[in-house]
C-alpha cells in the first residue's frame, strides 16, 4: 500500500514537472515568435532605409550634376574662340557660371543642414524670442515690406516664443519664401502670417492664395527633393520643407498644412512653451 502511495506521489511530482516544463516551453516559444516578429520589423525597416538611401543618392547625383553642367558649359563657351567674344558676352557667360556655383553651394548647404538635423547633431539655442522682429527681418530679407503692387502681406505676430532664433528665421524664410514663390495669376496675391498662443503652444500659420499643392503630391511633400507637379517650371530643389520639418521637430513641435490646388495653401507649425513642459 505504501509502495502504491509512493508511486502515486512520484507520478504526481512527475506530472507537475512536465506541467512546469510544458509552460516554460510555451513561454519560450512565445518569446521566440516575438523575437522573430521584432527581427522581421527591423529587417523591413533596413530594406526601406536602403531603398531610401538609393533613391536619395540617385536624386543627389542628378541635382548636383545640373549645376555642374552649367559651370562646365560656361567654361566651354569661354574657351571657344575667346577673341570673338565681346566683354558683354564674357560677363554673361561668367554670370551663368556664378549662378550655377551659387545654386550648388545652396544645395550642399541645405543637404548638410538636413544631415545635421536628422542625426540630432544640431544644437539648438532655445530662448524667448520676439516673433515680430524675426518675421519683419525675414520679409526685409525677401525684399518685401507689408505690401507691393499686387501682393498684400498681412502679419499678426505680436508674441514671444521659445525658439532658436536662427532656426526659426530659416523656417519662416522657407515657408514665406514658398508662399511668394508659388503664387499664381490671380489679380491680387494675399499672404497672411500669424502667430499666437493656443493650448500652451505658439501656433504659427502662413497662408497664401497661390497655386496650391496637387492632392496627388501632398503625401510626402516634406520629403527631400519632393516637389509638386504644378511647380516643375519654377526654380527649387525640394529641400526647404524637409529643413523646416527637421527644425520644428527638433524644437519638439509639429508642422502640417492644408492645401487645395488653384485656391491656396496654409502651412502651420507649433512650438511648445518650454516653461510649461
Ligand atoms: N505655399 C505653397 N504653395 C504651393 N506649393 C507649395 C507651397 N509650399 C510648398 N509647396 C510645394 O512643396 C514643394 C516642396 O517645397 P520645398 O520648399 O521643400 O521645395 P522647393 O520650394 O521646391 O525648393 P527649395 O528647396 O528651393 O525650397 C514645392 O516644390 C511645391 O510643390
Ligand atoms: Mg521652397
Task: Write a structural description.
The protein has helices spanning 2-79, 87-119, 131-141, 165-181, 215-218, 240-250, and strands spanning 126-130, 151-156, 160-164, 189-198, 201-208, 254-260, 264-272. The strands form 2 sheets. Strands 2-4-5-7-6 form a 5-stranded mixed sheet, covered by helices on one side. 56% of the residues lie in helices and 18% in strands. It has 2 domains: 1-122, Signal transduction histidine kinase, dimerisation/phosphotransfer (DHp) domain (Helix Hairpins, Orthogonal Bundle), CATH 1.10.287.130; 126-272, 2-Layer Sandwich (Heat Shock Protein 90). The chain is elongated and about 120 Å long. β6 and β7 (264-272) form a beta hairpin. α3 (131-141) crosses α4 (165-181) and α4 (165-181) packs antiparallel against α6 (240-250). The longest helix is centred in the first third of the chain and has 78 residues, at 2-79. By secondary structure, the chain is an alpha+beta fold. The chain has 6 helices and 7 strands, in the order ααβαββαββααββ. Bound molecules: adenosine-5'-triphosphate and magnesium ion. Magnesium ion binds next to α4.
Structural class: alpha+beta
Number of strands: 7
State the helix count: 6
**Poorly predicted sequence stretches spanning 5 or more consecutive residues:** none
Tally of distinct domains: 2
**Ends: how far apart?**
74 Å
Q: Percent of residues in beta strands? A: 15-25%
CATH top level class name of the largest domain: Alpha Beta
The amount of helix comes to 55-70%
How big is the Rg?
30 Å
Ions, cofactors and other bound molecules: adenosine-5'-triphosphate, magnesium ion
What is the fold-level CATH name, i.e. the topology of the largest domain?
Heat Shock Protein 90
Overall mean pLDDT score? 90
The main β sheet shows up as: 5 strands, mixed
Give the name of the CATH architecture of the largest domain: 2-Layer Sandwich
Please identify which CATH superfamily of the largest domain we are dealing with. Answer: Histidine kinase-like ATPase, C-terminal domain
- The coarse silhouette is elongated
Amino acid at each position: 500500500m505504501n509502495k502504491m502511495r509512493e508511486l502515486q506521489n512520484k507520478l504526481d511530482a512527475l506530472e507537475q514537472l512536465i506541467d512546469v516544463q510544458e509552460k516554460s516551453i510555451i513561454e519560450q516559444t512565445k518569446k521566440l515568435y516575438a523575437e522573430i516578429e521584432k527581427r522581421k520589423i527591423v529587417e523591413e525597416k533596413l530594406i526601406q532605409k536602403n531603398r531610401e538611401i538609393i533613391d536619395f543618392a540617385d536624386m543627389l547625383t542628378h541635382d548636383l550634376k545640373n549645376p555642374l553642367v552649367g559651370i562646365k558649359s560656361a567654361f566651354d563657351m569661354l574657351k571657344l574662340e575667346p577673341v570673338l567674344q565681346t566683354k558683354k558676352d564674357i560677363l554673361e557667360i561668367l554670370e551663368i557660371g556664378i549662378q550655377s556655383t551659387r545654386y550648388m553651394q545652396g544645395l550642399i548647404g541645405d543637404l548638410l543642414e538636413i544631415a545635421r538635423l536628422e542625426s540630432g547633431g544640431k544644437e539648438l539655442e532655445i530662448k524667448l524670442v520676439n516673433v515680430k522682429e524675426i518675421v519683419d527681418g525675414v520679409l526685409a530679407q525677401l525684399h518685401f515690406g507689408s505690401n507691393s503692387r499686387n501682393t498684400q502681406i498681412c502679419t499678426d505676430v505680436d508674441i514671444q516664443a521659445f525658439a532658436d532664433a536662427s532656426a526659426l528665421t530659416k523656417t519662416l524664410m522657407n515657408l514665406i519664401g514658398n508662399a511668394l514663390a508659388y503664387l499664381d495669376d490671380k489679380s491680387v496675391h494675399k499672404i497672411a502670417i500669424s502667430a499666437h498662443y493656443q493650448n500652451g503652444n505658439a501656433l504659427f500659420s502662413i497662408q497664401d492664395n497661390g497655386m496650391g499643392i496637387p492632392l496627388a503630391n501632398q503625401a510626402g511633400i516634406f520629403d527631400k527633393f519632393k516637389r509638386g507637379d504644378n511647380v516643375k517650371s519654377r526654380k527649387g530643389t525640394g529641400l526647404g520643407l524637409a529643413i523646416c520639418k527637421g527644425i520644428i521637430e527638433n524644437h519638439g513641435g509639429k508642422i502640417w498644412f492644408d492645401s487645395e490646388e488653384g485656391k491656396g495653401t496654409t502651412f502651420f507649425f507649433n512650438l511648445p512653451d518650454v516653461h510649461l513642459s
